[in-house]
Every structure is written in C-alpha cells, then in structure tokens.
Prior knowledge:
The protein is globular, with a radius of gyration of 15 Å. The chain is built from seven helices and no strands. The protein has helices at about 5-25, 55-65, 70-95, 100-110, 115-125, 130-160, 160-165. The mean pLDDT is about 95. The protein is about 70% helix and about 0% strand. With about 170 residues, it is mostly helical. The longest helix is centred in the last third of the chain and has 30 residues, at about 130-160.
Amino acid sequence: MNHKKLKLVVLNGLIAACYVVITALFSSFSFGVIQVRISTVLYQLVAYNKHLYWGMVLGVVIANLLFSPFGLLDILVGVGVTGGGLAVAILINQRINRRLVKSVVIGISVSLAMIFVAIELVTISKVPFVITYVYLVVGQLIAQVVGLVVFSLIDRKLNLQKLLSC
C-alpha cells in the first residue's frame, strides 16, 4: 500500500473513531425526534476531500450499532442518510470549485436526506411526520452550520485542503 492510500485509510479510520466518540458524548440528543447530532459536523470535511466519505459512513454504522435505541433499522437508515446525502453532495460538487458552496451543498443534501430518519421515527414511534421532519432538518442544519464555521476557522490556520489531501 502506497503512502497516499495508507494516509486515506488512516484519515477515514480517525474520522470514523471521532464520529463514534462525539456521538457517544452527546448521545442524549443524537437520537430521537428532536436531535442535533453534533458528530455530523464532520460531514463538512467532505468539502475538503470527497474520499473522506467512507469514514463518515463507517462512523455512522459503528455509532448506530453501539448507541442507537432503534437497532439494525437505524444502522440501515443512518447509512442511507449519510451515504446517500453525501453521495448526492459529492456528485453535485464535482462541478463546483468554491469550498463555501460545496459546504452549503453538503449541508442541504444531508439535511434533506433526514426524510428517511423521519420515516423511520414515524414508523417506530408513531410521531407526526411533518413536524418530525422539520425538527430533524433544523437539527441537521444547525450541525452543518457549526461544522462549516468550525472547519472554516481551522482551515484559516491549518490549510485543511492540504492537510486532508491524499
């Protein structure tokens, strides 16, 4: 395995581990109808390197496996939301050069993908769909805005594009 591939594997592993730890620390509001999953701020790293996608997906699988009260269904839905939302964002972002726009696309894509979590919660918890979806989208948008701001500030000092390149 060459240096670039090894770096990519290590970065994805670190991201997955960070995702799991952050989800654990904030698990009281990472699941359920009203949630702001702080760990999803990490999705914004995909704006710097689309190959970090796999660390996000792996992190969701492990976090949902370990902490979700909804079991296997939440793993599948979580992979659909994260994997699908980020995949759509990556496809759209292929034609975009400005990082801010890429970050906004990521935030909107994963927020709209929360429709699958809303459907899951309606099915399991018998909650009303529209208000549940609104709560989930707002919670995800909050996390994405925080991620955009935090990583933009870090990028000013550390050049994340270079640091996260593989």
